Automatic annotation (TrEMBL):
Residues 209-343 form the Guanylate cyclase domain. One of its GO terms (biological process) is intracellular signal transduction. InterPro entries: A/G_cyclase, Adenylyl/Guanylyl_Cyclase_3/4, Nucleotide_cyclase. One of its GO terms (molecular function) is adenylate cyclase activity. This is Adenylate/guanylate cyclase domain-containing protein. It comes from Bradyrhizobium forestalis. PROSITE patterns: GUANYLATE_CYCLASE_2. CDD domains: CHD. Pfam families: Guanylate_cyc.
């Protein structure tokens, strides 16, 4: 390799790979610079483990003449035969390099290398990428050059790992922060927090459709079932709603025991309130069907479930609220309070879905007026609506 060009690549990484905006672009730029410097690279992969409840890691695969392929794998991969026989398992678990030259008998223990040889690969090396927190990630380097990588090539690969690790760790930490914020506070709130809206009192007024739901009979359920079983039930129950809410443009802000608070932002400049509320109603119907189909075996019995959801539309205060250095990014306001009060009425009326007069007026549908009800904290009684398609079921 050209030592001068190699040093420039190293400096470019140390400077933050500033010419590349996206990770995939950075990987492509990095590999092309190495090839231009004389490294006979045909295929490169970097595999970064993530701090995510469902995703074990992400991978970026570059191959000459092709776009960078981006993928992710879940934790189930750890139990697969493919991972058990992968050279990357050695890297992740032992932090060791794995080399596999053509015609190398030791490399036969890795089926992946056989696949690469079938495509003309002559040499392979997997190199650990240590982060400052002690976690081990991995890179793979493959060539089709006759004779494989030279000693100088291998030395260059090992030397470039440290600067590559630093810039990869910075990118990974940023993405981890985004994923954790998305997981724990929602994508809209997460984007605002990451953008610097972190001081107590930072709030915005937003018009939104409000969703507030809870599970029927949860207190009795918690009393008669083991805590572990209750957690399993809650997770399955919330899955029934979160998928529908997010699929229709909503954001889950908070889980409160068996309760769920979500908002569906309305763009006041576009005037899409009717469209947004129609999607909210569709999400409520999907959730109702999913919860009705939910069955959880407990011993010889099967638990079935019902829930109630109140829908309202109005202005909310959305932002940082809390005490000292412990804040919550949430929403408050009379509209949220009214939704919470309406949700309690669902059980009394034996309804799954109830809507405020404001929501029913915006979302034109076959609503059935259920009457006026006094609402604690509100001076006027509130008119409540239910879906004409629903048959009231009063639980004992």
């Amino acid at each position: 390799m050209n030592s001068f060009q190699f040093q420039r690549i190293s400096n470019w990484l140390i400077d933050g790979a500033w010419s590349s905006v996206e990770p995939a672009e950075m990987i492509a730029d990095f590999c092309e610079r190495l090839v231009a410097a004389g490294l006979p690279l045909w295929r490169f992969g970097i595999f970064i483990r993530t701090l995510h409840p469902e995703i074990f890691g992400r991978n970026f695969i570059w191959k000459q003449g092709e776009d960078v392929e981006i993928g992710s794998v879940d934790f189930e991969i750890l139990e697969t035969p493919e991972f058990a026989r992968s050279p990357l398992r050695v890297v992740f678990e032992q932090g060791l390099e794995v080399r596999g030259r053509a015609n190398d008998p030791d490399g036969k223990r890795f089926p992946f290398l056989d696949d690469m040889r079938a495509e003309g690969a002559t040499d392979y090396i997997a190199v650990p990428v240590p982060f400052l927190d002690g976690s081990i990630h991995a890179t793979s380097w493959i060539t089709q050059h006759p004779g494989g990588f030279s000693d100088d090539d291998i030395a260059a690969i090992r030397a470039i790992i440290a600067p590559l690790a630093r810039v990869s760790e910075i990118i990974s930490l940023r993405r981890t922060a985004e994923m954790l914020l998305d997981t724990y506070v929602g994508n809209r709130a997460g984007a605002r927090i990451l953008g610097g809206q972190i001081r107590r009192g930072h709030t915005d007024t937003m018009q939104a459709a409000i969703w507030l739901s809870d599970l029927r009979g949860f207190t009795a359920l918690s009393d008669r079932l083991p805590a572990e079983t209750v957690v399993e039930i809650l997770n399955g129950y919330f899955d029934c709603q979160v998928t529908a809410i997010r699929g229709h443009g909503g954001e889950v802000l908070k889980f409160m025991g068996d309760g769920l608070l979500a908002v569906f932002p309305i763009d006041e400049y576009v005037g899409d309130a009717a469209h947004v509320c129609a999607r909210v109603l569709e999400a409520a119907r999907e959730s109702r069907a999913s919860v009705e189909a939910l069955a959880h075996p407990v011993g010889d019995a099967v638990e079935r479930f019902r829930f109630g959801v109140a829908l309202h539309v109005g202005n909310i205060l959305y932002g940082n609220i809390g005490g000292g250095n412990r804040l919550d990014f949430t929403c408050i306001g009379p509209a949220v309070n009214l939704a919470a009060r309406l949700e309690k009425i669902t059980a009394r009326l034996g309804r799954t879905v109830v809507a405020s007069e404001g929501f029913a007026n915006v979302c034109r549908h076959d609503w059935h007026e259920l009457g006026e009800f006094p609402i604690a904290g509100f001076s006027k009684a509130q008119r409540v609506y239910g879906l004409a398609e629903e048959t009231p079921v009063v639980m004992a």
